[in-house]
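User: Second chain of the day. Same drill as before.
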Amino acid sequence: MLCYVRLMHKGDIAQVTEIDREAFPTLWPPANYGRELQNRLGRYIVAYDEEKTVEEPKVEASLEKGISGLASKVRRLFNHNRFLSNEPPSSGRQYIKGFAGLWIMADEAHITNIAVRGIHRRQGIGELLLILVIALVMELNARIITLEVRASNTAAQNLYHKYGFAQVGLRRGYYTDNGEDAVIMSTENITSAPFQAQLQRLKQAHCKRWGIPLYQIAR
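Assistant: Same format as last time:
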């Protein structure tokens, strides 16, 4: 699997919205990612195929205020700048396979979503995005990560458990489409030695399974 990760920019909004609608078709109102790029608390990354592009009308490629500074910080999460770029390709746009978003509030981060195109699921992309979100949270000096997940989504819950999340609560009737409960999950201190050791083991196992060299994954 050849997959690269970078910060989301304005040119990605159409594809990210498409993936969001496919992954969360019943959520209303739909997310406004143009607004999210201007949210000082929000951070978004995309997983893309460097060799595949999609042709769309030309859109301003400049990043929103503050994003370029974050990009320089996020580059330190990688061992080679080739795998992180804030520039779109010269013709067309990079084909996006999935994306992830989070909000940073003081020393706590909240994962808002992780979504992968249906045809690219079960290829390790969602797990890769989770690994990089955790690395980004550490770079931004937060210590705790929280999220909500549908009570029926046991596959996602198992992945989060694997990466140190534990159930800490329940939001009754949280999802308005069917009244389903949301499981609240949280990590302990992600800078702790036990968490970091387990994260390194999981990164290596992910690389071995999916054939992604370690230098393509956040340190």
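The CA atoms of residues 84 and 108 lie 24 Å apart.

User: Great, on to the next one.
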